Sequence to fold (204 residues):
Amino acid sequence: MKKRIVTIALSMLLVFLTACSAEDQGILIDIALSWAKEHAVEIAAYGVFGTTGDQEVDAVLGARGVIDNINAADQLMEEGREQGDLTKMEEAVEKRPGDYTYRTSYATALLQQGNTADAEAQFDAADEALGNYSKDHLQTYATQGIDELGALRPGFEKNGFASTQQCQTYYGRMAYFYEIRAATGDSYFKQQLEHYLAMKKACQ
Fold:
C-alpha cells in the first residue's frame, strides 16, 4: 500500500508541481527524491532497456516522458507563435497531433503566410481533434480562433489579401468561429457572424 501511495504521489507531482505552493512543492520534491533513491537501479535499467520490469515504476517513468514531451511541445509552440516560426509550430504539432490549440495557431500562421491550402487542412484537423475533447472546449476553441485570426485583420486591411482563396478562408473561418460563439445566444456574435459571411461573399 505504501509503495502504491508513493507511486500515485509521484505521478501527481509530475502533473501538478508547477501549480503548487512553495511549501507543497518542497514536500512533493522530497517524496520524489526518496522514490528515486529507492528505485535507482530500476531507473538505470529503464534508461537502457526502456523498462524496469516493474509495471508501477514503468508507469511513473512513462508519465515523466509524457510530461517532458508536453513541455517541449509547449515551448516550441510558444516560440513559434512569438517568432512567427512555422518550423517550430510544425514540430509542436508533430509532438502533439491531437492538440487543437496547436493546430489552430499553426493554421493561422500558415494563412498569414499565404499558404491557404495547408492552413485549411490544419483548421480541418483542429476541428477533428476537438471531437476528442469535452463539449466545454468548443467555446474555448472558437475564442482562440477569433483572437488569433482577429490579430491578422489590421495587416490584411492594410496590405490586402494575396489571393481570393486566402480572403475566403480568412472570412469563412471567422464566420465559423462566430457561429460557434453565436450558439450562446449573444446578439453581438450573431451580428459578427453575418458580417463575416458578407465579407467572405465580397472576396474577389
